[in-house]
Each structure stands twice: as structure tokens, then as C-alpha cells.
Amino acid sequence: MTPTQGRQFAVITGASSGIGFELAKVFAENGFDLLINAEDERLEEAERSLAANGTSVEAVRADLAKPTAVEKLYERIRQTGRPVDALALNAGIGEGGDFVRETNLEQEFQLIDLNVRSTVHLSKLVLRGMVNRGHGRVLFTSSIASTMPGTYQAVYNASKSFVQSFALAIRRELRGTGVSVTSLMPGPTDTDFFRRAHMEDTRVGSSDQKDDPAEVARRGFEALMEGKERVVPGSLVNRLLTYGGRLVPDKAKAEAHRLMAEPGSADKGRDEEEVRSK
Q1: What is the CATH number of the domain that holds 219?
Q2: How far apart are CA 117 and CA 70, in angstroms?
Q3: Which whole-number Å values give the CA distances from 256 to 45, 151, 259, in the listed order?
Q4: C-alpha span between 273 and 278 (Å, rounded)
């Protein structure tokens, strides 16, 4: 990687598409060179696109669900010889369905390894350098899912609850160090998430009311640069679910989540719409 004169350096995981790619774009537009990571072949296309405006971009293809891949990514960060000014921990996957009778245990282990373990692992490695320099910013992609029991997304919501709690705790520990931590809490967003999580037949997966990933990324970047604790981008509904949901019993939130994430609920929703329209 050849540094661009006067530009800061950001590392973004899960950057081949969706919110991660849009985050990389926003960082590039705001004076950052980039090291981007993902595990799929779209990463090369993302690298070419991001480099088109003169930004220095390096792509490291690695599956962070594997500890050796986290070490590989961190070693490449070290080899650049550049301090990490911003780290966006965005890599994550979902898995929808009935936990006992439908979902795949190996997929759920992979989800935990990527969403939880790799987040802790890479944070530990990169944050030490930030604290030693007295400067840095970290953006954790959490979710409004972290605020509610995830009926038919049991492991995913639990993983995001971990990320949210972890981010807020680390933020508190780092007070006075010059390092800030921000939690990005999007709602349903128009990305490939629901297809990969096998949730296209759910109400939430089939909805055409999802948020724009570019807007989610922009709000996340702005909150990070302002040093905010958290940001809930997107619709008013997202903010009501996040902040108003504190007053709602967990069993009610679990039932509301069931209505949105139950397999086959997309068809049920269409049937109900037809009945109402008659």
C-alpha cells in the first residue's frame, strides 16, 4: 500500500458489499486510505471501485470466522507501517429459522465465530496500538436486533446483543485515552443479508421498506467522527424500537420479532393484506 499524502488510514471488515462497502466509500470520500476485508470474490470488484477516485486501497481476502484469518489480517495491517486511525468492525452473518428443528448448527457456530469471536479478537489486536498512540476511532456494527429476543433468529440477535454490550463497555474503559468507540445500530437494510440468512420468505426479509445502506453508512461515519456512543439510522420505527423498546416487556418484543422473522411469514402477510383490501 502506498500512502496518499495527508490521508488517514481506515480498516473496514465485511467491505465487499452492503453497509461495509458503503462505509468504505464514505471513509474514502472523507480523506482516508483503506484496507478492506471480506471473504468473498466481490472484494476485488470493491477494491477496484474504491480505488477509482485516487484513494489508496488494499484488499485482504480472509474469512474472519477463522482465528488464523484474523491474525493474517492484523499482520497485513502491521506490514503497512501505518497507524490505524479508524477501525470499522462490520463483518457479520445471520441465520434464520427454528433453532431446534431447522437451523444448521455449524452455520450457527460460524456466526458466533464471525460476529462475536472475531470482533473481540481484532479489537484486542488493533486497540492496543490506538491506546498506545492516544488516538483512534472504532465503529462496531451492532443492530437494533441487539435490543430484543430474536425469535427465529435466536443466535443472531444474541450475537448482536454481545457486540452492543461489548462496544459500550469498551467505550467506557477507554475514557481519557484518546480512543473513542461508537455503536452503529441499523434496522432492516437493503443488503444481501436476508438471502444469506435464508430469510427471504419472512415478512422482514421480503419487505420493500428496508433502509438504504449508503444512508446507514453515512450516519455511522458521522457518529463515529463526532465521538458519539451510538447511532440508530434509518426510519423513526427503528428509533422507537430501540429507545421505546426499553419500556416493553421482553416477551412482547419476542412475539413481535416472531411476526417479522417466522419462516413463511411473508405469505401470511400478503394474505392478510388481501383480506384487508377486500
Answers
A1: 3.40.50.720
A2: 10
A3: 38, 9, 5
A4: 9
